[in-house]
Design brief:
elongated; four-stranded antiparallel beta sheet; four-stranded mixed beta sheet; alpha+beta; disordered N terminus; 171 residues
Amino acid sequence: MTTSIRKVKTSDLDLKDRLVSIQRVTKVTKGGRTFSFSAIVVVGNEDGVVGYGLGKANEVTTAIAKGIEDAKKNLIKVPIFNGTIPHEQLAKFGGAKVFVKPASSGTGIKAGGAMRAVLESVGVKNVLAKSKGSSNPHNLVKATFAALVEMRDAYTIAQHRSLPLEKVFNG
């Protein structure tokens, strides 16, 4: 099943950024070790629009700024229904597997680490999430995005099947 990625324009969005991970990386050269930084950043308007980016630079602040700029180029739109996601979804990227499931009102975000940053940036208020396999933050963020891209609301399904909205539920 192929899903189209819903790209979003950044012009009139109020995006908030969250730093997921910062790593110091080393390049060994003839003259010694050269240190630089790698930062993964998630941006979102907390209303269904989210993106992630990777920035690399010799200074922490520059790496974060580059990550934010990269994240603004990779925005997607995620359907949110009553503060949660429309259905449960399983996704995988590299060694990281994630499972996200809608939750009732008052549950909160039950997710850890990198997944929590992505789900908070999307604007989901109630969700249950589990990560299995690798805990590498880069792969966890990408697997979470893969799960969110696959999300479809009832209106989108009705359009795709050329049916009225009532027929989607009464099948």
